[in-house]
Amino acid sequence: MMSTKSILILGIALASGATAAEAPTVAESSGIYRLPFADGTEVSVFDDAASHRPVGAVDLVGEPRKGKLHRVVAAADGMVMAIQDGYSEQQSGRAASECRNNFLWLAHPNGEWTLYGHMATGTTSGKAGLKIGDHVRAGQYVGDEGAVGCAMLDHVHFEVAVPQANDPIDKGGFLNGNEERQRMRVPRFCNVPGQTVRKDAHYTALACGRASE
């Protein structure tokens, strides 16, 4: 019998009209994270954990989509494990394996890692001044929203995962040993009804423990 946690994506997919046979199973995160945008940012969901391909990640968009720079923040306290922010080309339409994405991976005390993908060139190592081994606090600025790599629009590709201990990610920032999405975790967020974001919904980014006024 599958546990409640292990069928979270199944439930989301069925609510969206998918059949049980089409819906994969991915466990929910053990940690609860803040939405990875600066406090007060309106955030829309381009893809949730069920609609995203491949499943398990979420695509979050700062609103308004035009004319405003959106600051990305750490979703929880953690340590910088990997940074790539030297690319600048938007490559929408290519296979993921052919794209050169900017990314930041943070490791958290609960054993989970979070990924922040497609951020603007140079903003993690330059503007945020981060390097591998640095410790960050929840809500700390880590870069600007962007559309670098395989991205249709400016957004943050966000993942929670439990990487394998040895050789956790490849040079492109992708998880190793994740062929069946077994290392993915459906992100749970504070200040979000039900703790899981839904496609096309809108939320306000706030620190955990702080309710919107």
Description:
The protein is mainly beta and 213 residues long. The chain has one domain: Distorted Sandwich (Glucose Permease (Domain IIA)), CATH 2.70.70.10. It contains 2 helices and 12 strands; from the N terminus they run H-E-E-E-E-E-E-E-H-E-E-E-E-E. The chain has helices at 8-15, 123-127, and strands at 28-33, 42-47, 58-63, 71-73, 78-84, 103-107, 113-117, 135-136, 141-144, 156-161, 184-189, 202-204. Strands 1, 2, 3, 5, 6, 7, 8, 10, 11 and 12 form a 10-stranded mixed beta sheet that branches. It has a two-stranded antiparallel sheet with strand order 4-9. A hairpin with a 5-residue loop joins strand 6 (103-107) and strand 7. The longest helix is centred in the N-terminal third of the chain and has 8 residues, at 8-15. The chain is globular and about 40 Å long.
Task: Provide a concise account of the structure shown.
This protein has 213 residues and is mostly beta strands. 6% of the residues lie in helices and 28% in strands. The chain has helices spanning 8-15, 123-127, and strands at residues 28-33, 42-47, 58-63, 71-73, 78-84, 103-107, 113-117, 135-136, 141-144, 156-161, 184-189, 202-204.
Could you say which structural class the secondary elements and strand pairing correspond to?
mainly beta
For the record, what CATH class applies?
Mainly Beta
The CATH superfamily name is: Glucose Permease (Domain IIA)
Domain count: the total is 1
Q: Sheet with the most strands?
A: 10 strands, mixed
Mind telling me the C-alpha Rg?
16 Å
Taken from the alpha-carbon principal axes, the silhouette is: globular
| Overall mean confidence score, pLDDT | 89
